[in-house]
Amino acid sequence: MDLNKLPRENVKVVDDDLATVLAATIADYEARSGKVLQPAHIERLLINTFAYRETLARQQMNEAYRQQHPRFATGLMLDLCGDDVNTPRLAAQPALTTLRFSAEIAGQAQVFIAAGSRVSVGDVMFATREGGTLSAAQKQLDLLAACTVPGISGNGWSAGQINTVVDSLHPTIAVKAANITVPSGGVDIEGDDAYRQRILLAPESFSVAGPVGAYQYWARQVSPAIVDVHVANDTDSTGAPIGGTVAVSILTKDGLPGDELLGAVQTALSAERLRPLCDKVVVRPPAPVDYSVNATLTLFSGSNPAEVLAAANAAWAAYEAGRRHRLGADIVPLHIQAALRVAGVYNVSTPGLALTTVAPNQWARCTRINITAAAEQVDG
């Protein structure tokens, strides 16, 4: 039995069906009193109330039971499930970027860039996590920096946008700074779904990161921004596996990971206490498989095109949301057509969209979606 597909409502310790509880309560009363109840009897009104209240109590009992299991637990109860396997929920993390500091320096002058030096864009500030020195011999310096506020607010700034030096770095020498990478990796506190996956993977961590599941566990441990991990032998140019080299591909909530997050995962998985002695770990982003969808909807006669298109766009958003955070999801025109066949649609055409097999270390990325209604409608 695939427990991943087990419906939540099927996990219960007592029957919480209202009709069953009501029938049992009526039968018990009739057996005790010797009276056959009719719907209009006053006792039925009281029994209906008691049966309803008992059903609520049974439902609460079943939900309390579900909350003991990580597959169904939520909120604090999920945190307690994680505590059983030494897997705490990941806190919010700041966006990371690389700042390039530069200055025109002559002679023996030097400018020390201390760790914690701040550069801003609007109200969003980034602080360096390491220090360095500018001199006549080294007039520019690249330093890793993190947003001062954890969460998503630091993500996505274009290269060069973060360029206002907040701190005075030298009394006479002007120091310029700007980000040379797009900040990424900023994420809010880990959500229940991602946390649940890590808890279920936690037993793999009891070994070193030799098993696939162990590498997946420790990679996800780095950041709650990571939503999918693929682990396999690295391959050479001919596709043959390279012995002893482990390729780890990671996907984030925002898609492809930034260099800073890749470096953090590389550092984590290369630790001697996690990695088998002879393993070489290579962490890389998944290879994107880009595709676009041009869908033409043929509508039934009398359908409102605006309403149908709105429903189709909503259906596409739901369909894409289920694939955006998965590696190795094939591009299947039939599935896309089925998703877009909402009420009022007679037929869906997706010209130019081919069936594409996506490898487990690849990411299907839709770069454009265009949904239109055909001029002609049909009776069907």
Short structural description:
The chain is of the alpha+beta class and about 375 residues long. It folds into 4 domains: about 5-65, no CATH class; about 95-180; about 190-285, GMP Synthetase, Chain A, domain 3 (2-Layer Sandwich), CATH 3.30.300; about 290-375, no CATH class.
Helix segment tally: 8
Structural class: alpha+beta
User: Compute the gyration radius: what is it?
Assistant: 29 Å
Number of β-strand runs: 14
Kindly state the mean pLDDT as a whole number? Answer: 90
What's the CATH architecture of the largest domain?
Answer: 2-Layer Sandwich
Features:
380 residues; 3-stranded mixed beta sheet; alpha+beta; 28% helix; 6-stranded antiparallel beta sheet
